[in-house]
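Re: [help] complex structure
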Amino acid sequence: MSERVVVDPITRIEGHLRIEAEMDGQNIAQAYSSGTMVRGLEIILRGRDPRDAWAFAQRICGVCTLVHGIASVRAVEDALQIELPRNAQLIRNLMIGAQTIHDHVMHFYHLHALDWVDVVSALSADPAATSQLAQSISSWPKSSPGYFADMQKRIRTFVESGQLGIFANGYWGHPAYKLPPEANLMAVAHYLEALAWQREVARLHAIFGGKNPHPNFVVGGVPSPIDLNSDSAINAKRLAQVQDLIRTMQTFVDQVYVPDTLAIASFYTDWAERGEGLGNFLSYGDMSIDGSTDLDSYLFPRGVILNRDLSTLHDVDLHADGEIQEYIAHSWYAYEGGPQVGLHPYKGETRLAYDERKGPAVPFKHVNVEDGYSWLKSPRWKNESMEVGPLARMLVLYASPNAPAHAQAKELVDSTLSTLGLPVQGLFSTLGRTAARTLESKIVADAMQTWFDALVANIKSGDTRTFNETLWEPSSWPKKAQGAGYMEAPRGGLGHWIVIENGKIANYQAVVPSTWNAGPRDPQGIPGAYEAALQDNHQLHDPKQPIEILRTIHSFDPCIACAVHLQDPETGEQIQVKVR
Amino acid sequence: MSGFSLERGLQALREEMDAPVASFFSSCVHCGLCAQACPFFVETGDPKYTPIHKLEPMRLLWEREFTLWGRLKHLVGLGRKVTDDMLAQWEPLLYDSCSMCGRCSLVCPVGNDIAYMIRKAREGMVASGHAPEGLIAASVRAVNTGSPMGLQWKTLEVQIKHVETSSGLEVPIDRQGADYLVLLSSMEIINFPEYLEAITRIFDHAGVSWTLSRQCFEATNAGIQIGSKDIAATLVQRVVDAAEALGVKNVISPECGHAYTAIRWEGPNAIGRSYPFRVFHIIEVLDQLRAEGRLRTEGKEMDRLSMHDPCNLARKSGVIDQQRHLMDLVADNFVDLKEHGKFQWCCGAGGGVSSNERAEALKMAAFKRKKAQIEEVEPERMVTMCATCRTQLEEGLEEFNMDIPVVGLTEMIADHLVEKERA
Amino acid sequence: MAVPIRPQPRTLGDSLRQNGVSRRGFLKFCAATASMMALPPSMAPAIAAALEQARRPSVIWLSFQECTGCTESLTRSFSPTVENLILDIISLDYHHTLQAAAGDAAEHAREQAMHENAGNYLVVVDGSLPGPGSNPGFSTIAGVSNLQMLQETVAGAAAVVAVGTCAAFGGLPKAAPNPSGAVAVSDIIKDKPVINVSGCPPVPMVITGVLAQYLTFGTLPELDAYNRPMAFFGQSIHDRCYRRPFYDKGLFAETFDDEGARKGWCLYRLGCKGPMTYNACATMKWNGGTSWPVESGHPCLGCSEPDFWDAGGFYNAMSVPVGDSGNVLLAAGAGGLALGVGASLLGRHKRAAAKAGHETVTADELEQKL
Amino acid sequence: MSGLDNIPIQVEPAPALARDFGNALPILGEIRHAVARLRHDGEPSCIDLGAMPFGPGDEARLMTLLGRGEVSATVTALGPTHVWETGYPGVWVVEYQNTEAQRVGLQIEIDEVPKILRTQPADLDDTLAALEARLREAAGRHPDGASDSQ
Amino acid sequence: MMSSMDFLLFTKGPLFQVAIAIFVLGILIRLVEIFALGRSRNFAEPRGGQVIPGLKTVYKRFNPDPGTFRRAPFDVVVGTVWHIGFIVALLLFIPHVEVIKATVGLAWPGLPNPVVDAVTAITLLGLIAALIHRLTHPVKRFLSTPEDYVIWAVTFLPVLTGYIAYHRLVNPYPLALGVHILTAEIFLIVLPFTKLTHIFTAVVARWFNGANFGRKGVQS
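Output below.
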């Protein structure tokens, strides 16, 4: 029997996303991804001071809290051709790096792990065996039998209280959970440890940006001045703190995150066979290894991979009218030129048209997949649907032999594949996506030290500049300017496009990673990355507990709240299914 | 046919509105400092004599008709209207208690030239029929007889004969092409005949080519005092005609304050054209002669002398140093009043006040300011160079039993001329 | 009321003791709690007495038009930590970002919590929501409009805590021109107490402090005019700013990298909104006392105040007016000139007419007055 | 872990005291009043430093001003709590940390003994009960025990 | 009900635009009205120039002549003190400099806040003294119309509310600041239609005065 499965809300993500998919028996035939919340930020930004834009843009997301701020100030700096002091470049790299690692670890433990880890099963683990398991994979000190016994007691007390709180109604006991109880207990312990760890490492943002979430930025540099003789600036004490935090990050990645990923993945190698989807990957590139602006020095190089062909890397031009375009064929927006055209972000339009594009009357059971069904647009590169994110980055890096981090990346990928006994094709999968995230965390954590050393060396050489004030005053700007700010956010390539006229924002468009990944179909009916991935070899063991869908969707680390609909392709009958 | 009316008065006022007036009215902040500059207020202590208050009717008209804001207020029925009663009420303020001395114009913190506006306001008073009787009478006499006091040429002729006899010199009359046309004031002719003799002797001494005109000998201008440019123009025209008829290069205004401002400053504007001759006050001419070395004097007055600067001459015409140069020539013990020159205090009689019988008491009250000034320096004699001032000083000093004679500067110069025979 | 299968929730005192916490530990917990609630240390015994009796209250956390920054902020709380909070102090029964369940299972968890704790649960909201006059399709969860979900969920709640400036005041979505017709929680909920914990995001310990207060005393804290807890929002950033002496001395940073910036001078001229911003950043600071925006060289954005997005630009000094004064000046200048010319033409015309109609004053006329 | 020494930066000779943003001295005054209150009325006080608008260096300066005295202690309950007497007897600094050794509170207590060091009356009850139980247990096992003599 | 923040944003936003619009519109109308009336041609032979004496008078009237100072020392001292105080507070308080910079693009250094604070306090006292003087001095009382008292209040209130806002004597601060801005806006709005125009026209009046006298050879 065919049916249509709805998951709404998909939790453990940022925001509100809805996906509808048609079932063919057990298999997902067609999936539809739908962002269900809009704030109209691009409309709000019009007419404002471009220097203020970062603060607005940053509130696109509070999880990857830094990335939109960075992309925004970069867009303004690109438009006005503001050169950044080296210190500012390096400090931003440190902040981006910290964000990437922080975000990946939180995603793995707090958002993704519960798809693979059965909390209830942990109650039946043997603390001593757990300790042995932990010690066998890592030298992480918190691994004594007593520690795990305490942890187990704490979970038991909690479960027995009857108030399960956030763990209530999980798919506990689902046969898709394959970890032994000891691995589950260890993972739950690390779930809690990661909460404490993330709290600690977020301090790095507070040091340079005053707070986290939503640290502060400034067009033309960073807000925090450097003065080794001042208490109220980045001084030796602050730098020592930063060094500590970098070590804390590296230690956790090396001793907890990487071993846990490998350990858990080894139980789920079947997930290296599904969830691939498009086979097209895009990376804008980011984080020059030496604080310069040279593309060749990027830790993550720029490029596009088409049809899994790692031998050919295509170049990307963010300014070219014909390359990046956004479509709204299935979005609740209207373009002046009609729903079929694609617009480069400089010419992008944001007109909310829920009713016009046949958004269903609220409350609704299903969206109307024939017309608009999402608040996300469909970005395309040369009309190709692309996947962005850690996997895209790792693949582009893998395919860029001259990139500074290529050797490290190749070694990490190859050894991971061999540890898990997987072929290279295993990368193009739900599991590959999750593994790529872990591996790039390792690469970034190591690069953090390089940036920090470069920063300290630069300060020692007497350069303490952190801000370029020459183009601060709007009176010094050209009448008209436009620019693109891009970065590799944890979830993938992020671009902000700004058009400035008379010192004010004339147009602002953000094409965020989740728009690439979670966007709906384009006018040709080509699906976005989520949709394509869900259509790749997904069988639901129990449509009422569609954990399979969550695994693949979460492997993208969505940045919006989601919902999944499954539709009977023959009868069109739509059945609301409890997802549990 | 007399058509004086409120409306005609307002029309006259409207004609007078100009940028300075608008800027002055816009700027007044009611600080009241002009009162401290006005002898009529200072000596009476009555706040209604505050100079700017005297302009209230004119200000109302300006606000109402020459500002957008005032017009809007008018449209919604706010703001007062200028009435005939109001003008009647203001008549004594504008005439009796103002000598147009201009001292207020000099102290106003926002720079209002109040005297300038009083002069303009009087146009409206005349045209609305609110001028004082004394001034009307003087004006009528001046126009009809050539002199505000009704003085005829034949009276002057007697004086001339007398001077010629006394000095042994000829008084030139109607001498075509003379350098200087000398004008006189009726007041001088009657009260201070020694002036004409002094002139005659000095000019003879210095070898100045001069003449009197039978056609017009009167310098004073009642039109200026009453505040009618039409009357003023009639009177000035007579001077201009006489000067042009004789083809003189210069016209000399006598020791009379307002006569000088009338011919020198207002005259050309009253008749609407420039003169083909220049206008001087006698003091200016004398100082010029002195500077050229054409005045040879001997001996000096040894008693303590002080001087009263006529407002029209000093503050309002810039003749301040000249009289002091001349004093230095002939006086050894000269002491200036504390506030002198452009800051001197008015004697209280100018601006038509002396022609306005009704203002007699106020005039004397205002004089107390001068009296106080004089008492400060305790001179034995006062020197001045304006017949009106001189009369007021004499009357005033007598009124207050102060035995301080007043002399004219021109006479004093004449007294010290080196005699021709001895030279 | 309670579903019989479930054991009665124990008190926090029980819970702590069962976890082997000594009375000294409890004392310490109370001292830290007092500090967190911005109460004087002398309140610790009262807190202890209250906590002995307190039960883990059910909390339903609704996320509408938000960015998850508020939740992220909560996870940065050091005292109590988020894990303490959700394991020991409250029962967080519905929270999109943290909960294990998804889809209908998640919605079911919410309904279950509402049912079992009717009248007693606390609703926390982050994010604004499209108002009644707006298109409900602008933000839906499980096909239900935010408005409907809020009203349904709050119906049985004891109180509502609007976390973050979006929930409290409309925040970013409500920034001009408010494309989605966003409103604040208090615009909708009129029959329940609504505590606003503003900030973009709020200081983590302010969120936990308010929850702790409710948990401890079962009462709502004293609130300011914006229904914010006085304990945290009672004083302005400016009044508690360590850079205040520089403001008083007139020493200001002029750019982000000048002598003033390096020496920690006042950021007023760089646009600091500290004087009008009521929040606890200057004392509680961020990320475990690491720093706070002003300490890191950036002017205060004023993020805990209503409409701060439209308050005149983040880098314009607070006194600077909002809006395009230049164009207004030009327009008014042109208008003033035109009107002035018009008005003066009237005046000049009046004078010209008076001059044209001038009747010469003659002696004969005057004579008639005698 | 790493400290200042590990940073390869030449630190310019810094002033002996941390930069004062002006918020340390007023607290000294508050402490003085509290000490007087303790001495005259026997009333202890506690100042929560978490509520102080400290600038960078203010806390360090205050601690320098207070100095260290003769007594220090660590209480291990829900993470460590460090207690030390300052250079001024009767003035104590109490620093509460959570299980991850992150500070959760910093207080100055003016008292003869800080409260957290005192044994709580309720614990004394437990002690009594536990000791009695232990004694009973010991007596029960003893051959001459009353329970056996019955 | 309008919250204090709404109120502040209203005063900083639309009301400010309205205020400066009315102010600029009004003052330009006033000035154009004045200048457009012009002066009739003067045929009398001048004794001196107009421009230089006019400018000199503009400056000289800041200092009263000694006689006036002797006869009205209170007016001179108090008037000068509060005018200077008002201008210092208006133009040299840093937040005000920022407003002017943002509005017309001109900026200059300001004074330390405690200095401005002291000046403001003196200005307040000066204004109170000026009011008492106006109520008691015969000439001033005689001349004063209701407008004079309104104008006093309109001038006094921005200074007072500024002082209150700076010292945070009223809470919440947005309310105090909003009220201050509101009073300043009232000042701006009222200015072109009252004797407050003297701020601009006094310069013109002084110039005309100096020019009138200067032409006759007297530096007034």
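Chain A is about 35% helix and 15% strand.
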